[in-house]
Amino acid sequence: MDMNVLGEPVGHNMGIAWNQFIRSGKIAAGIVSPLVAKSWEKCANRNMNPTEGRGQIELGRNELKELLDKNERTIRIANPFMKNLYKTFSNTGFIIVLADIKGYILESFGDKERLKNAQYLNFVLGANWSEASVGTNAIGLALATGKPAQVSGWEHFSQPHHCWTCSAAPIFNRQGEMVAVLDISGPVHEKNSHTLGMVAAASEAISMQLKMQQKQNEMILVNKHLESIFNAMSDGVILIDKCGIIKDVNTITKQMLNRNDQNMIGCSIDTIFKEISPVTKEMLHHKKSYSGIKLSVPGSNGTNHCLASGEIVADDQGGVSGGVVILRPIQQGKSSANCYSAHNADFTFNDIIGTSSSMREVMGVAVLAAESSSNILLQGESGTGKELFAQAIHNQSARRKGPFIAVNCGAIPRELIGSELFGYEEGAFTGAKRGGRPGKFELAAGGTLFLDEIGDMPLEQQVSLLRVLQEKKINRIGSDKIIATDVRIICATNKNLLKEVRMGSFRQDLYYRLNVISVTIPPLRERGEDIILLLTSFLQNLSKGRKCEFDLEPEVLHCLKKYSWPGNVRELHNVAERIIHLVKGKTVSLVHLPADVYHCCEELTELPIQRSSFKEQRRRENEKTEREEIITLLHECKGNISHIAKRMGVARTTVYRKMQLYAIQY
């Protein structure tokens, strides 16, 4: 650094203390602050050269770009505060700097001449100014302590920094984590007692702004999730204010009524749903929810029948701020119990893809099982398609016209599984809905109840399930009334139930009650002949009806067959989605497969040609990318090789060599 530009180092006693430490390693008590003394000792223990002090430029162009992209939000928020600080310190020789939590400089503001002088010490974008890199300085101390710090003149460990005074303060996010450091550095003779306070105030303001934006982004994300759920619901949803005015409707409501939201939003619910007007008013005025009210509404294809229910929306004071009206579509001819939760089985055996011997065998067993009325246990690893088989069995059975109700026993909280399966009466427990609610056994009457992940069912509920299977009767929770059940049970699990029985986590008597007919679905790794068949089908379906024929390279075919597919058919479907998004033409190569899949190919010693072909392909793609980058930079930098080398993070000779290698002329 130019000593004349920045001024002579000040602080005679401090200078003597620094020289004493450098010569003997002794700290002058009462002169050197404990914080600075500790930092000096760490620098000495690292064998740092006190005559050096240049920031370490360790990042190439691409690494620097990644670092800036990673910290984009912090830089964007800090930028206006840094500009305001720069206005305060303009023409004083000070530089305003933002560094990340590792000490890399992300942004800087300063007079042109001062920034130019700072380059001598690599006090520039991408340079590392942590304590471990350049010795004692304000950025390093702020990072180490998490508190504002000021280091002036001789307090710096490195001699070239003695002409500087530095003040830095950390910046924190909403979680209380340090994300950056704000620093003001300038000539030591311009040192001001207010500088540290100003940088601390600015860093606090940046932290507040960062926390506010994080909160805002979280709220936006939550709203997007709620909006997605709102519009993805299979029931109609209408949001009303406390006066009964419609504020919003979801997609299914518009479809049911054959109206757009402009024809409903702002209207009173009385004008559209007269049948539920009285109970809706009572709900809003007296906080009385309602459910199970049959409603007929005109739609595009005639009259739609549904069950209406309503709940209030309370404000933070417990008052009524509005309400939610749910319209659950029902089909004519179905019992009112089934109207609560009908689920259709969409798949048949024709939808199950597979010509391998193992699949033909299991399909034969499943077809025979469908023709019986016995309980069925589907076994297989996750992702093999157990629910697909369950639906196909239902649609092949004599119960195909009845409901197909699916329950994931592993996804329902332990305390709720009883009410889900057997239902409850009004007032059975706190929060029980008015009128009660039927359980899945009632909803599946005349059809099939599919109990997925049966191995995760709690022991206490296994007892209740066994009793229902034996007696074919249920009682809703909170009721003495006996309800006869007419349900065919299909269970599925990815666990070894016999092993669970031996361990005591699954009842033996329930196991034999459920395992009347066992169907074991083979994992995908045992169905090598089906992999390409399945992938082709997935690609065609994901192409949304367009005729898309992909050309799979031999290495791809080999990898797909050799890979173990721990996620089974579900994982293969994910691979198909990846291919659809990544392949630009029709040729599918190894680079389009997930790393887990093609690494399996690289590890096979019998495929040296394929491995080398893959590596060569990756090399060609990297060279193509690099050539395009150089051509772009030649135009942007107007042929200035020095500028190009700086932006690429390489030497000028490297740029010339690569231009010759790629036959680039300018």
From TrEMBL:
Pfam families: AAA_lid_14, GAF, HTH_8, Sigma54_activat. It comes from the Bacteria. InterPro entries: AAA+_ATPase, AAA_lid_NorR, GAF, GAF-like_dom_sf, Homeodomain-like_sf, HTH_Fis, P-loop_NTPase, PAS-like_dom_sf. Transmembrane segments: none annotated. Keywords: ATP-binding, DNA-binding, Nucleotide-binding, Transcription, Transcription regulation. The keyword DNA-binding applies. PROSITE patterns: SIGMA54_INTERACT_1 (PS00675), SIGMA54_INTERACT_2 (PS00676), SIGMA54_INTERACT_3 (PS00688), SIGMA54_INTERACT_4 (PS50045). Residues 352-581 form the Sigma-54 factor interaction domain. SUPFAM superfamilies: GAF domain-like, Homeodomain-like, P-loop containing nucleoside triphosphate hydrolases, PYP-like sensor domain (PAS domain). Gene3D superfamilies: 1.10.8.60, 3.30.450.40, Homeodomain-like (1.10.10.60), P-loop containing nucleotide triphosphate hydrolases (3.40.50.300), PAS domain (3.30.450.20). This is Sigma-54-dependent Fis family transcriptional regulator.
